[in-house]
Each structure stands twice: as C-alpha cells, then as structure tokens.
C-alpha cells in the first residue's frame, strides 16, 4: 500500500494541465545486449590512471568508469537536428590536462560536422561546427587518430580531413584554418588529396579517406610553446608520410618510406621510434595485403616488422592497428584486419618487432557478459591500445564491441592470455523492431547485423544469446497475436535460409521458418502483422502489395484492394486488419482476415513528403477493438474510435514519428500513450494518461538520443510509465518514472 500511495503522490505532483505539455523526470538506460556495433577507436590518457575513451562509427563516444567497471555514454544529449554528430570520426585528449576531451563528430560527409569540446571528461560539451566534413561511418573510419592536441601547447589542435586537407586550430577547436602548405597527390580516390570544391553530399560511391593520423613529437619542443616536429599520414599507396619541423607551417615527405600500401595507424613510442600499420585499402573491409613498419627518425632507418606475411594469392588480409607499451617501448602490439579464413589475430612483440607471438587465438575468451558473442569471431580489429599505466592490459575493438586482456605478460612464459568482452554500458546496435507482450519476456527486439534478443531482464544480456532456432542477419519486423501473446512472427534479411520469416509459439524462445516467403518479398523485408488469434499472417512485401497466409506460409493469397506500406491487426477481432495509405490520405480496413481491403470514408491528410520516414504512423490501441491512431511527421495526430470510419484531430500535436501503448495509469482504464513527435513545436518523447487530451514530456535535454533509423516507441503493458524506444546506434533505450526524485520535491 505504501508504494501505491507514493505513486499517487507522484502523479498528483506532475499532473499535466490542458494545453502545453508538462514534464516528468525519468531514469533512462540502455537495454542490455552487449556491444553489437563497430568500436573503431580506443584512447587512453597518457598520465591519468584508468582514464580511457572509446569511439564508435554510429553510436557516439564513451568514457570508462573504473569504479563501476562500465562504459559511460557521453553523447546521449544529441538532438535530432544534431543526428549526424553520433558518428565519431576521431577522438583526442590533452596530455597536459586530463579533463579535456575533443570529439570530431560527423557520421557522413553529406551533413555538417563539428568538434565537441569538453572540459570535464565528457560530462558537458561545447559544439563548434567545422568548415570541413567528416565520415565517421565511412571507409577508413577505424584509421587514426586524425585529431591531435599539441602536448606542449594545449590550445593548438590539428585535424586531418578526408577531402579538404590538413587543418589547424589555435583556440582549442573553436575556429579552424586550412594548412595550405600541406598538399598531397593521391590522398583520395580523385586525383588530389583535397579539392577546393564542395565535399561529397551522399552516402556510398567513392569515399575519400584523406589524412588518417597526426602525431606530435613532444620531445622536440618544450612546455608552453608549439611543438615543432609533427607527422601526418595520408591514406594513399604512394608517398604517404609527411613531417613538419616548424610546428606545421611547412611539410616534407619522410625519406625512404615504404610505398604500395596505405597507412592506417601511426604511433610514437617513448624512445622516439615510430610504428605504422598498413593495408591495401582503407578498410575496414577489402584488405588484401598489409604490413607493419618501424621508423627511426634519428637515423632515418625503416624496418619491416610484419609478424606474418600475406601470400596475396590464396589468403588475403592486411594489418589493422598498432600500439606501443608506454612503460616498455620495445613491447608492441599489432592486429590483423580482414583475415577472414585464418581469423584475425593480436600479435605481441617484446623486442621491438624482431619476433612475435599471437595472443588472441591461443587465448581464452570469456563471453559471459554478452553470451551472444560466443558464436562470433573477432573481426574488424581496427584499433588496439595498451594501458600506459598497466602494460598487462590490452584492449582491441571489433565489429561488435571491445575485448580486453589483463594478463598479457603471462604469454611471455608460455601462458595463455585471458580475454573478457568488456562492453558493460556500451550498447551500439541499430534496432528495427520492438514488441512488449503482456506475458513472457518484457521486450523482444529486432536489430541490424545480429538478429535480435528476447529480454526477460532488460538489464542483463540474454543468457541464451540471440534468437534460438531460425536466425537472420537482421530482424526488421515483429508482431504477436494479441489473444495468444506467445504466438509471434518476425521477418528479416540474410541468414542461411531461403525463407525470411519465422514464427514462435513459446514467446520468442524458439523459432522456425514459415513454409515460404510471400510472393514478391525478395530481399525486401517489408512489414508484418498477425491476427489476434494468430491464425492469419499478413506480409506487406512492398508498397501497395500485401499477401496473407492462413497455413504458416505453405500458401499465400494476395490482399485485394490493399494500398500503402503499413499493416496492423485489430487486438480483439481476428478478422480485422488496418492499413494506412499515407500518400493518398486513406485508411483501409479489412473485415475478412485481410483477403480484401476497402478504403473508409475518413478524410486524412496526405504525406507532405512521401520519402523514407514520411509514410505516416498507424497504431491500434491495446485491448480496444477499432480504436485507431494515425499521425504524420508534419501533419499532426488523428484518433478514431469506430474502426477508421471517422477521425478527430488532436490539438497541440504538430507531428508524429512514432506512437505506442503501455499500462494504464492507476485509476485509469485507457492505456498510456507514448509519443515521439512534436507538441507545441517541441520535438520530444511524451506520455498521455488520458487518451491524448494532455501530454507529459518524459525525456530531457540530456537524454535525446539523436535520430533513429526506424523510429519506434512503445510502452510495457505490465509496468506503468515504462517506455522503450529505438535509436540510430545506441540500441534500445528504456525509461521508468523517477519516483524518488519527484517525491523528494513534494
């Protein structure tokens, strides 16, 4: 009874008023899956013990919390308008000030980029848009680091761009000037390293890589003045390493350097030597050759120290990254990259690269923190780091997270390295589908690249890993039968199956493929729905084309009269399905199990821009027959209580990106509504406990999570106030009412 009384006090305190939305404090966390995306950079601070950061290609940046033994996300505050800043092109620390952090943020060259500057280890940031573009999720994103802070004068930064050359800032990243003396032929797929024209404005195609690494020779200068000697590596197979002796004013190629491969990492050891890793292309895919080299700047000597040579004929691969032990500079670590047949390896040398030992494949890998990784092989090993304060600790990034070894020295005497998947708090999946049934697992998610998860406990990576039975490369649609919630269907892509739809009758524990794909499905997953009794499955294979099966895919029948690209089942009546034709502003309904659809007489707005993301939102209220909601990003939200025959427009809701339902508030019968959209011109996440009459903002300025590839938001039918939503690289986020915070204000 005490808990109920406390909750009612909370509700009374935050009760919204008609009109503009009020706000309610929530606690937001990532649903635990464990990694899942490409960690393409790991950087230790050289002097601050246990301070390290990780950058990702689409999921922002993280700081390691040694006390909690978990990664702390640093970029969840990014708004939708700042969505391109979630791909971190490079990361830099000030060696003289452990509080200073710089993120070069820009996912694609098609949109603006910025330097995110922090003076408190990422607790807060200032944003400075740059005159150059970035490609944090483009070719060569694991190269680095492009961004560097002068160790003798922290106000000076250099950045190696993809198309626009080398840039310098003298005010800690606030403003930038191009270093016109740095011009390199062959740095991009085009004839010059950078052009005076506009950078590319599209994904794909010919991606420039440009300058991949900038390294200061701190010993060449003194504290308080700019460091005179600087090196820069360029992703080209011709002359690619350059040196400045006048703090970056002029540049010359380093004599005697190897050519024929592209450098991807450049590091300096404490004894003044330089180490470089090379590949045939920028990566992370497609390497067919590679090497590791050592350069002595004192005598100009170059030494090939490659642990193994690639024959270049039957087995093709290259080298991904190189790191040096700060305490013992003759100890070096390199990783292979794209060694798919032999599997990638982490090589370690304790004598400057004369001899090497592989320490990953002979080692013991502990997958307990993310059991799904037990069926994965480390790949895209494009970054590696040695703890400067603990030489036994080595970390490397993969296409699905971070592996960490803390007993590297044991391999010197013939022991085996122990590797732990070190990804607590670091979640980087891209989710495409979510359901929260009224029984069984609280959440079932479909994600890109690793299929999906059944989460009985959203704070623990599922012990059984991903879906049992049928697996796809990615799950892109999920639905369950409202009257039989253990019955589910999902559609996906990839996998070793001719059919790309699967069903479960035990709440997602086990899955088996349908008898066949719906005609016309091909490689397009489309949308999926299951009738309330589970006996009819409707698959929208493409716009204006849907198929229904009553025998689990043995046969399919065309849905006559169907148009649009969405499909939902009525939660009560198994004969009723609904579809939204947003291009023409029509609501279609079927009363005969989707065999035939007919447009209702309701007048709805047509989508203003029928491109991706503008198809409109259609939802049916949990537990109520014919109670429908339709919304558009720029045209508001509409409610029907008669199966779509008529709709009423809601005041104050300006646009809808996603809408879902959860458990009703105490004393209420109508389910709570969760909305991602605009209310009174403010885009945020909201909840309504009174069928949309009033709204409460549930996210806040520090928890906006940028964009989602597929925007979804749903509630939990068993936990009042809980919301789940998708992101574009931070996995699934869930939130609960922060009751203690509100009650304390009472």
Give me the CATH fold name of the domain at 35-197 and 207-421. Methylamine Dehydrogenase, Chain H
| Level-2 CATH architecture of the domain at 35-197 and 207-421 | 7 Propeller
**Share of β-strand residues:** 35-45%
Estimate the global geometry from the Cα principal axes. elongated
The largest pleated sheet is described as: 5 strands, mixed
What's the average pLDDT? 92
Radius of gyration: 27 Å
Structural class: mainly beta
Under CATH at level 1, the class of the domain at 35-197 and 207-421 stands as Mainly Beta
* Order of strands, widest sheet: 1-55-54-53-52
**Uncertain stretches of 5 or more adjacent residues:** 1-19, 185-205, 742-746
Number of helices: 2
Strands, total number: 58
Task: For the record, give the distance between the C-alpha atoms at the N and C termini, rounded to a whole number.
Answer: 19 Å
Q: Helix content range of the residues, please?
A: under 10%
């Amino acid at each position: 009874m005490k808990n109920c009384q406390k909750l009612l006090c909370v509700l009374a305190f935050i009760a919204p008023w008609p009109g503009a939305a009020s706000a309610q404090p929530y606690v937001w966390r990532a649903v635990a899956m464990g990694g899942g995306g490409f960690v393409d950079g790991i950087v230790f601070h050289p002097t601050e013990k246990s301070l390290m950061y990780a950058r990702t290609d689409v999921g922002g940046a993280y700081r390691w919390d040694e006390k909690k033994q978990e990664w702390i996300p640093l970029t969840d505050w990014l708004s939708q308008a700042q969505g391109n800043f979630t791909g971190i092109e490079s990361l830099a620390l000030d060696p003289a000030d452990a509080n200073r952090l710089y993120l070069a943020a820009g996912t694609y060259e098609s949109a603006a980029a910025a330097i995110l500057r922090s003076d408190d280890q990422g607790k807060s940031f200032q944003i400075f848009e740059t005159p150059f573009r970035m490609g944090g999720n483009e070719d060569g994103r694991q190269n680095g680091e492009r961004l560097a802070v002068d160790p003798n004068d922290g106000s000076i930064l250099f950045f190696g761009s993809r198309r626009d050359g080398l840039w310098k800032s003298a005010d800690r990243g606030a403003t930038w000037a191009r270093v016109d003396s740095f011009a390199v032929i062959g740095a991009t797929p085009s004839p010059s390293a950078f052009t005076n024209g506009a950078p590319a404005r599209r994904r794909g195609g010919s991606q420039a890589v440009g300058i991949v690494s900038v390294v200061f020779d701190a010993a060449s200068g003194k504290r308080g003045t700019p460091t005179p000697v600087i090196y820069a590596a360029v992703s080209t197979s011709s002359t690619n390493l350059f040196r400045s002796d006048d703090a970056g004013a002029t540049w010359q190629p380093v004599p005697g350097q190897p050519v024929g491969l592209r450098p991807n990492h450049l590091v300096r050891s404490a004894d003044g030597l330089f180490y470089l890793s090379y590949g045939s292309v920028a990566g992370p895919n497609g390497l067919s050759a590679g090497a590791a080299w050592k350069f002595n700047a004192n005598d100009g000597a170059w030494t090939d120290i490659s642990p193994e040579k690639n024959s270049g004929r039957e087995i093709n691969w290259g080298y991904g990254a190189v790191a040096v032990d700060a305490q013992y500079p003759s100890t070096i670590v390199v990783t292979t990259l794209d060694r798919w047949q032999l599997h990638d390896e982490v090589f370690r040398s304790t004598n400057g690269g004369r001899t090497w030992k592989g320490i990953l494949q002979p080692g013991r890998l502990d997958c307990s923190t993310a059991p799904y990784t037990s069926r994965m092989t480390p790949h895209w090993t494009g970054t590696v780091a040695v703890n400067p304060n603990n030489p036994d600790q080595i970390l490397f990034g993969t296409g699905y997270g971070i592996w960490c070894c803390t007993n590297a020295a044991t391999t010197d005497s013939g022991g085996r390295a122990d590797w732990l998947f070190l990804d607590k708090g670091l979640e980087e999946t891209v989710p495409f589908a979510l359901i929260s049934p009224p029984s069984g697992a609280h959440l079932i998610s479909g994600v890109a690249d690793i299929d999906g998860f059944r989460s009985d406990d959203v704070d623990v990576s599922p012990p059984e890993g991903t879906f049992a039975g049928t697996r796809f490369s990615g799950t892109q649609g999920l639905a369950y039968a409202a009257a039989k919630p253990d019955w589910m269907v999902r559609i996906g892509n990839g996998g070793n199956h001719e059919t790309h739809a699967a069903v479960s009758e035990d709440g997602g524990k086990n899955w088996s493929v349908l008898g066949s794909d719906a005609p016309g499905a091909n490689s397009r997953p489309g949308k999926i729905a299951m009738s309330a009794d589970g006996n009819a499955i409707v698959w929208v294979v493409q716009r204006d084309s849907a198929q229904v099966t009553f025998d689990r895919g043995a046969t399919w029948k065309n849905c006559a009269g169907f148009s649009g690209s969405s499909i939902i089942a009525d939660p009560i009546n198994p004969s009723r399905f609904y579809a939204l034709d947003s291009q023409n502003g029509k609501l279609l309904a079927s009363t005969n199990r989707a065999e035939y659809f007919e447009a209702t007489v309701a007048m709805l707005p047509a989508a203003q821009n029928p491109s991706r993301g503008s198809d409109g939102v259609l939802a049916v209220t949990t537990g109520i027959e014919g109670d429908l909601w339709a919304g558009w990003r720029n045209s508001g939200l509409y409610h029907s209580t008669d199966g779509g025959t008529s709709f009423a427009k809601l005041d104050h809701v300006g646009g809808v990106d996603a809408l879902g339902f959860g458990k009703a508030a105490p004393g209420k019968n109508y389910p709570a509504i969760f909305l991602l959209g605009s209310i009174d011109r403010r885009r945020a996440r909201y909840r309504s406990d009174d069928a949309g009459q009033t709204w409460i903002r549930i996210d806040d300025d520090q928890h906006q999570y940028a964009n989602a590839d597929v925007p979804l938001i749903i509630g939990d039918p068993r936990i009042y106030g809980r919301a789940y939503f998708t992101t574009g690289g931070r996995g699934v986020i869930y939130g609960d009412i922060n009751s203690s915070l509100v009650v304390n204000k009472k």
